[in-house]
Amino acid sequence: MLEINEKLLNDIHLHGESTYPEEGAGFLLGTETDPRQVVAILPVKNMREDGTRHNRYLIEPLDYLKADNEANEMGLSLIGIFHSHPDHPNRPSEFDREGAQPSFSYLITSVNKGQAVESRSWQLLEDRSKFEEEPINIHE
After folding, report:
1. How many domains does the structure of the chain reveal?
2. Model confidence, pTM
3. What CATH number corresponds to the domain at position 51?
4. CA distances from 117 to 17, 48, 95, 136 (A)
């Protein structure tokens, strides 16, 4: 299970809306306890080349390092990635699966016609064969 407060989820939705019609992305920082708790987010620039950002995102290795360092400074862990799917369902694509890590949560927000609609979270199985949906607990 992934726990997140309404404000952070709203910030993720606003990021997806602000990057529309391209995919927006960022990091989930938090605790790896059960349930995982998102404590902070770190939006990043989609570095995918022009013309493909509408259905792909790319996070640079330096951004991963910066996010990991920021999480460590806050006493947190890098627990996942969030990204948006413009005018597409909030289910992971095959492209998402190929680049995913089994230990992360992947929070995907569907953004239809510029409006964030709904977010769902996913975790990649250890054998990397597929994602399973992870329940989200949204609190104040």
Report:
1. 1
2. 0.94
3. 3.40.140.10
4. 10, 24, 22, 15
